[in-house]
Amino acid sequence: MSTMQYMRMPMGGLIVVSVITGLLAVCVSGGHLAQADQTGLIKVDGSSTVYPLTEAVAEEFQKANRGRIRVTVGIAGTGGGFKKFCRGETDIADASRPILREEMDLCQKNGIAYYELPIAFDALTVVVSPKNTWVTSMTVEELKLIWEPAAQKRITKWNQVRYDWPDAPLVLFGAGSDSGTFDYFTDAIVGKAKASRGDYTASEDDNVLVQGIANNKNALGYIPFAYYAAQMKKLKTVSIAGKNGPVFPNVENVVNGSYQPLARPLFIYVSETAAKRTEVKDFVDYYLTEGPKLIAEVWYIPLHKQAYGMARERFKTGVLGTGFGGVPEVGLAVEEIMNRPPKR
Prior knowledge:
By secondary structure, the chain is α/β, with parallel strands linked by helices. It has helices at 3-11, 13-30, 51-64, 77-86, 101-109, 140-147, 180-190, 206-214, 225-230, 251-255, 272-275, 278-294, 305-317, 334-339, and strands at residues 41-46, 70-73, 92-95, 114-123, 125-128, 137-139, 171-175, 201-203, 219-223, 236-237, 239-242, 245-247, 263-271. It has two domains: 38-121 and 265-339, Periplasmic binding protein-like II (D-Maltodextrin-Binding Protein, domain 2), CATH 3.40.190.10; 125-248, 3-Layer(aba) Sandwich (D-Maltodextrin-Binding Protein, domain 2). α3 packs across α12 (278-294). The protein is globular, with a radius of gyration of 23 Å.
């Protein structure tokens, strides 16, 4: 039985008219019926990479507010999250890469201004099954050979990458095309965002990728560091060989800048309109002050203290826009991003 039916039957027709009138008033004054339900509810959606951190912060924030504020966190992928955010359907977008030009245009078209706030580092991690006995490290060039569009249906065996690797099928797992991880990995490895072979198992759910790689000794894939760290008994990480030899993804190598090009900052994007609501402002303040303490618990890498201070100052003083201008860039320091004049 609907709420309208429940109210009408015992209370009479007068209450029904009042309810309908009230709803119409909300529609007229607010423009969107959905706006009527915003008080006490914060809607977040986007990156599956950022999800564990936002979920942890949301849980602690709700406890601190004794349940008076509810925070919902979805996993639509960075691209899917931006679509919702730029249509005004959510208050905050979790993002594992910067906002792109077409997303900026959609936000502008719909009158959505936003804050771009870095919240942690991630190290995209190349992994194989523990049953894989031949791979310990790979070069960026080898990863490009495997993942570039020209490799589709052509590079299908391990010995096509290195002659002394086995004549066995190369079974690939990676992020889905709506994922910011997909965008960043292809840009960093192939040299162009979204340029990738298509004959691999793709998913925006990183847990699906973990299970697929773990159960196949011929598998190779890439996932966010947090998903590797939480399942490291099921996976074997591959170091990235560069000028200074093989480098593994870990806190030290990400912070000192040696794990390149696969170290990346993670972001939340906050709607200017939503940020005017007390509960959203309080949540973002909590995220930038208490969030860093939760990062290690969910296997992410904290930014420098200076970076968090810059993010808090940007939010406090109303500095809107992005430091990227709609074009993905690899290997930038967070402080450099925050010092750029933001674009909309």
